[in-house]
Design a protein that fits this description.
This protein is an alpha/beta fold. About 30% of the residues lie in helices and about 20% in strands.
Length: about 375
């Protein structure tokens, strides 16, 4: 069967579903935040609906130009040990193997990679492999970027084969949105699937971590691609941020979790969208997101309730455990500082908080205000180890 030809669009003027006025606005946005998508993904957009969720994911929006956020709110640069190699958690290393994706999601948290002055992607694979080889505590390696599956199969195999020669590396994860943007990358490349199958050993599996954000992305072609990978012995999972106007309704999340579970791609993280420059139209406050998430879980089975609601903060992966009438409770699901592992933190609620820092800033302000007072400070904020 001949391969399906997918066309990549980087020129707004080639997007036929946009009016001339919409193209003019989109061009201004794309001048600041790069634009790229596939004709396949555009075909999934309902152009009769101006609020179509996939349209929001793929096409530039003028609200992206609002002054808001930072380029690297999780301070990934702080944990970069070599260009393109991060070592934040003791047992995990992260490769930025490319700075290109099948499509540039408008909510991307690494849009800094797609600027002309970016130099973060890996340049010397051998140096990165040596680093991992010399750090025996690293048992997990995450290939990301950009999208690793946009690399040629031969180039991707060179990376994976070298990692498989390192005895202490058990799990290799590949973060991708290929199944949503271009499922034909899997369907039409048997060599890719065979290669992944070969290195997905019974005691050292290859994981493909997908980024599927809305049920409308779950097409028949996506299902076929998932089935092909599963039959080849690849483990699949999904993670997604909660996104305003895309999946910020409980019924949407319930449907997403259930449909993904049914085809073998269980959800394991729902992220608070990072406060990245250009991402304000997608922002959902932490506590609002929590209630949406919990309501969504009420309508799914136990298999789908394994998902966790987390933030990829500078200090670690912080999970929201509960929200009470007056307080919000967090824990370090993963901590950059091992001493914080499992730490539970209780803060006074802040319905406007969009990130963990918004709660810690309240503590600092509280402490300053109390410094000049003689009475004991109110115990509104607790920290429990």
């Amino acid at each position: 069967m001949p391969m399906k030809k997918i066309h990549y669009l980087t020129n707004i003027d080639k997007v036929d579903i946009l009016s001339d006025n919409e193209k003019e606005v989109a061009r201004r946005v794309a001048d600041k935040f790069a634009f790229r998508t596939t004709d396949y993904y555009l075909s999934l957009i309902n152009n009769e609906n101006p609020d179509d969720p996939l349209r929001k994911i793929a096409l530039p929006n003028k609200e992206e130009l609002e002054v808001w956020g930072r380029l690297d709110p999780s301070s990934e640069s702080k944990y970069t040990v070599l260009p393109g190699l991060e070592h934040k958690y003791r047992d995990t290393a992260l490769f930025l193997v490319t700075d290109v994706c099948f499509g540039f999601c408008r909510f991307c948290f690494r849009k800094r990679l797609f600027r002309n002055d970016s130099d973060e992607k890996i340049k010397d694979y051998s140096a990165a492999i040596d680093y991992i080889r010399n750090h025996k505590e690293i048992i997990n390696v995450l290939l990301t970027g950009g999208d690793p599956l946009i690399l040629s199969t031969s180039r991707l195999e060179k990376i994976i084969s070298e990692l498989r020669k390192i005895p202490h590396v058990k799990n290799i994860r590949i973060g991708t949105k290929a199944l949503a943007y271009n499922p034909y990358r899997i369907l039409d490349d048997d060599k890719l699937v065979s290669m992944l199958s070969y290195y997905s050993e019974p005691d050292k599996r290859i994981y493909i971590i997908n980024d599927i954000n809305h049920p409308h992305e779950i097409t028949d072609k996506l299902k076929e691609a998932a089935d092909k990978l599963l039959k080849a012995g690849i483990i699949l999972a999904n993670q997604s941020p909660i996104l305003r106007g895309v999946n910020d309704k409980p019924e949407t999340l319930s449907q997403l979790f259930s449909e993904l579970s049914a085809i073998g791609i269980p959800q394991y993280y729902l992220f608070v969208n990072r406060p990245v420059v250009g991402n304000s139209p997608f922002a959902v406050p932490v506590e609002e997101g929590w209630f949406i998430f919990k309501k969504a879980l009420q309508n799914v089975s136990g298999l789908e309730r394994r998902a966790r609601y987390v933030m990829s903060h500078e200090t670690g992966k912080i999970e929201v455990l509960a929200v009470t009438e007056k307080h919000i409770i967090f824990t370090y699901h993963r901590a950059a500082n091992p001493e914080n592992t499992g730490k539970v933190m209780i803060f006074k609620r802040n319905p406007n908080a969009g990130w963990f820092d918004d709660y810690t800033e309240m503590i600092e302000e509280f402490a300053v205000n109390q410094f000049t007072k003689t009475q004991e400070p109110e115990k509104e904020i607790l920290s429990i180890n």
